[in-house]
Design goal:
Layout lengths: L6 H7 L2 H4 L1 H22 L1 E3 L5 E3 H8 L5 H23 L6 H27 L6 H4 L4 H26 L2
Antiparallel strand pairs: 1-2
Length: 165
């Protein structure tokens, strides 16, 4: 029948960004990263002098900049790389939107610990887990947790949407 298309021929005609797990993951990571980035653009963090600064400004400080644009570029770069790792590590485990959301949530939690509680504080000259040890930073840490979970869920769901045939 002319109307039936085999899976093999469908996969052969699909673009690489839908068939390569790391590339699909990078795109999915950008989807999650944009939403997480908007959330960070709306959040502020306390400063040592009693003021506050946008969370995206803190992201820029990691690369020794005070530019919000640089913060966005760095954040989206990281989102794509972290998304590519997601596709590479977990892509074969994603069998539907629910599994994408579940694995994505777990992945987001892991990156909250690695990125939000270990890497970012260290790169900003603070001790590991500083956001949880400083009372004024606990609300920021919780916001970061929510953002990382959202990033993970959206990345997992977007990944499934990208690779679904």
């Amino acid at each position: 029948m002319a109307s039936s298309i085999s899976s093999a021929s469908t996969a052969a005609t699909m673009p690489a960004w839908r068939t390569q797990p790391w590339l699909a993951g990078a795109i999915a990571g950008l989807v999650g990263g944009v939403v997480f980035g908007v959330m960070m653009a709306l959040m502020t963090a306390p400063t040592p002098d009693g003021g506050s600064m946008p969370m995206m400004g803190m992201v820029a400080m990691v690369v020794r900049s005070d530019s919000l644009l640089v913060g966005w570029i760095y954040h989206l770069f990281n989102s794509a790389v972290i998304g590519a790792i997601f596709g590479w590590l977990l892509g074969r485990r994603i069998s539907g939107y629910a599994s994408g959301a579940g694995w994505g949530a777990l992945y987001g939690l892991v990156w909250w610990v690695l990125g939000g509680l270990i890497l970012m504080p260290v790169l900003l000259g603070m001790p590991v887990f500083a956001p949880l040890m400083m009372a004024m930073m606990v609300p920021v840490a919780i916001g970061s947790l929510v953002g990382h979970l959202m990033f993970g869920v959206l990345t997992g769901v977007a990944y499934r949407g990208i690779v679904a045939q």
